[in-house]
Amino acid sequence: MDDARTEEIGRNLARVRERIAAACRAAGREPDEVTLVAITKTYPAEDVAELAALGVHDVGENRDQEAAPKAAAVGDKDLRWHFVGQLQRNKCRSVVRYASAVHSVDSLRLVDALAAAAERAERTEPLGALVQVSLDDDEHRGGAVTGMVEQVAEAIAASPALRLRGVMAVAPLGWEPDEAFARLAAIAARIRQRFPGADWISAGMSNDLETAILYGSTHVRVGSALLGNRTPLG
Fold it and tell me: Phi/psi class of residue 28: alpha, beta or left (left: φ > 0; alpha: ψ in -120 to 50)?
């Protein structure tokens, strides 16, 4: 990797870490309560390796056809790979081989497919799974509508091959971040009341991570603020 790219990523990472720290101070939280998940989709394995060298151990991808070879190319056993995109059931067998957690579990059928794949893969530990919530209850986009969230969570918790981690959401287009993340926080609280160990809230990206942290996000998913606007892979 050229020195200019190394310096760019280092500067960006320092700025993002300071934003997280400042947001935590404003929310009365400790910075170590928030995990930075670097979203590396469309960017090369070299960028992932550079982030790892700088101490970033959680990386996120949204397409298996890119994530699987990238995880193999990086080959860093200390990295935790988070699958954050819409997941087709026929990709579950591949995803369970490298992912530490899947943030986008939004249906009972997907729970069944992931559980079966994780069992066949004979993983050393259960696959982390988060219920993706459709905050605006639009069934045509990703996420379980709010009336289904508890059912999906129950199905995850019932599988020995999966571990219910919590909830994930993206602020819907046109919504103010405060409205979106306040609603997610309320849903997360309901899930935690029934499943105390499901304490992850995956929310907040480059443009709204401060608001997400204010409302309790434990995992912020940051891409462009880390890797910039360089021309991505095709």
Answer: left
